[in-house]
Amino acid sequence: MLKLFNINKTFNAGTINEKKVLVNFDLHLHPEDFVTVIGGNGAGKSTMLNIIAGVHISDSGQVILDGQDITKDPEYVRAKNLGRVFQDPMMGTAADMGIEENLAMAYRRNKKRGLSWGISHEERVLYHEKLKILDLGLENRLKSKVGLLSGGQRQALTLLMATLQKPKLLLLDEHTAALDPKTARRVLQITEEIVTENKLTTLMVTHNMKDAIRYGNRLIMMNEGRIIYDVAGEEKRSLRVEDLLKKFESASGEAAANDRMILA
Question: What pTM, to 2 d.p., does this model score?
């Protein structure tokens, strides 16, 4: 479903602030893979997602999505086939619009727009049923302004919006990092349910080693723009946080000094 070939990305090239973020980076995702991505600050995790989404264009290499070369496609073209949830719960929704209006924007993405006004009865029934899956009581608040929701409710709504039109690839960029632990667990449960039910190919960046081990069928660890550890299946399920720390030290030649990665 996704192939990244020999991706290189350097910021501020030729200056004193030059930073090589991705170096000869390769990644291959099969359909329905749920891959968790972990690594310290500056490992290149978010840059990888941004290159897939077209926010940044790589200096070299190829991005292949579902057999199509999208390396040179602009962000708005790629967005038709991608779903994305950011760390900030405020980024994925329109605060001054109602819940049903936000869902309508997501539902009508990539569809031709007619001249009819408003949201149809059939759409409201669909939104009601989809919101019930979240088990947050939002199905009874369709008219409520999204700005009145808690961070966790907004993030769950953003996740639903990102997957309402089944994307070829779902990108989750530390989407629970800004939430309290209890809310984060609930959003991760919802994530797993939606990904499993819709058989979505998913990349989830996280700093939380326990979450990286618990969720998904595959885990990759990044350091200095490269993948230094790639594990799947039974081996992944039997991992412990201590094992990941040892793997990081062994593969990178240094101790895991990133506080967020250790303490999450």
Answer: 0.88
